[in-house]
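User: Hi! I have a protein structure encoded as tokens and I'd like to know what sequence might fold into it. I'm fairly new to this, so please keep things simple.
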């Protein structure tokens, strides 16, 4: 488990959402994959239905200067563009 912003372990860097690492609504932690994978909104290394669910669960959240759950295009905002990115990359297995 990570304890700080930008900390890395096994090639994974923690994202900074809401000034820290926890999703303020659920207390979930989020880890950014070291390699960006367009459409992977939940960090599972595949683009599938669970990514759509992640976008919808985190709709409207902003991650200033970072990314987090639901942000499938890593633009720091969870919105319709993330749904589009998931659909564009449906079925892709990330490196």
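Assistant: Happy to help. Inverse folding works backwards from shape to sequence: for each of the 95 positions I chose a residue that suits the local structure. Here it is:
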């Amino acid at each position: 488990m990570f304890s700080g912003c930008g900390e890395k372990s096994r090639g994974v860097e923690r994202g900074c959402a809401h000034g820290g690492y926890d999703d303020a609504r659920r207390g979930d932690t989020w880890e950014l994959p070291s390699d960006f994978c367009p459409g992977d909104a939940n960090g599972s290394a595949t683009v599938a239905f669970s990514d759509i669910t992640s976008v919808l669960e985190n709709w409207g959240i902003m991650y200033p200067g970072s990314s987090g759950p639901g942000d499938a295009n890593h633009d720091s905002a969870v919105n319709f563009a993330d749904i589009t990115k998931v659909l564009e990359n449906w079925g892709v297995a990330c490196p």
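A useful reference point when you look it over: The longest strand covers residues 12-14. Feel free to ask if any position seems puzzling.
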